[in-house]
Amino acid sequence: MTVTVQHPADPSPLVTRSWRGFTGEEWQRHIDVRSFIQANYTPYEGDAAFLAGPTERTRTVWKTVTALFPEERRKGVLDVDTAMPSTITSHAPGYIDRDLELIVGLQTDAPLKRAIMPNGGLRMVDNALRAYGFEPDPFVTKVFGTYRKTHNDGVFDAYTPEMLGARRAGIITGLPDAYGRGRIIGDYRRVALYGTARLIEAKRAERTRLDETPSTADVIRDREELAEQIRALGELERMAVSYGCDVSRPAATAKEARLAGTVNQPDARHTRTVSACPQAGVGSGDCEVGRGLAGLRVPLAHVDRGRPP
After folding, report:
1. Dihedral in degrees, nearest 10, Cα atoms 26, 29, 30, 36
2. What's the longest Cα–Cα distance across the chain?
3. Cα distances (Å, whole numbers) of residue 17 to 12, 14, 249, 257, 264
4. 254: alpha, beta or left? (left if phi > 0; alpha if psi -120 to 50)
5. How far is 57 from 263, CA to CA, in rounded Å?
6. What is the pLDDT of residues 13-68, one digit of tens each?
7. SS3 155
């Protein structure tokens, strides 16, 4: 999707410096990641000779993680925060080894510690917790069982009798209930390319264009969803600040771009929850640590050079 928001005629020196060396104009005038890619990609037809192995820094961080694996295997799940439903800003910054990590961000405040997402469905969270020997938090159970309608509740309210019958008989699979993770995947390349301030500006412009439109059900929904998107971008910015990262502006280096893509992923790429990804919980030291990053990653090449590839 292309969002038309004119860039200031005289962009700030910070933006100019971040975009130096890149070609194309459309993506600078509008929020358009595809235009940026089309204007700047270079096909690589070589072999893997350019790849580098893990650094000593990565090996040290990874050793810290692997030391947790025996207890993880014994228990099935090392730890779960049963009392705090996961949101973008729900948990304090988490580190494996703060002094050694270059790309930071865990889903919770500790490695291999899972989060719960009862917005998707309380029963799934309760069953998963009990399966691994954890007791559901009474307050969370009361709120999401009594006062808060979950995604699963809404899905079952929308099913027709025929759908329910087909589901029970196993004729139809892949239905949107019984999910432990979100299915709306964020395009976090936008954060690295434009920064949250510009993206918020674009979302506000979209919402403003609806001001003179008759308030049909679709328009009301669009205005509500745009307001939520603006709030979420602000939360991404605040969460990144807690890690010492400024994602309000475009990334100026490869390291900053990688940080923008990992720190700001609370629900992307199969978000780790006790109900969806029981084997997940941490990334590797230099390249693949990210709040919400999927699964366990083997250490990859070091990326502290700070230059785009």
Report:
1. 40
2. 62
3. 9, 5, 11, 14, 22
4. alpha
5. 20
6. 666 688 988 999 999 999 999 999 999 999 999 999 989 999 999 999 999 999 99
7. helix
